[in-house]
Amino acid sequence: MSIPNDPMILVSYINTQLRDFYPSLEELCKAQDLSRAEICEKLAGIDYKYDAERNQFV
Q1: CA–CA separation, 11 vs 46, rounded Å?
Q2: How far is CA 55 from CA 20, 21, 30, in A?
Q3: 29 CB neighbour count, 10 Å cutoff
Q4: Cβ of 11: how many Cβ atoms within 10 Å?
């Protein structure tokens, strides 16, 4: 599975996946074989961080 490279598109994609299909970032990463650290690092570059309580990047 290829994910968007642009951070602004990536945050939208990840949050949509979390909202519609996955109960946590860990589950999404496991199911799609993604690196949690890589996603968090890329989104931190545009001031987004994962909020587990909301299950989204904010």
Answers
A1: 9
A2: 11, 11, 15
A3: 18
A4: 19
The tokens 């589950």 sit on which residue? 27
Residue 6 has pLDDT above 90, yes or no: yes
Q: Please give the model's pTM, rounded to 2 decimal places.
A: 0.93
Tokens of 12: 């939208």
Supply 9's token pair. Answer: 């598109």
| pLDDT of 41 above 80 | yes
Residue type, 31: A
Six-digit token string for 38 = 């890589």
Per-residue pLDDT at 1 = 62
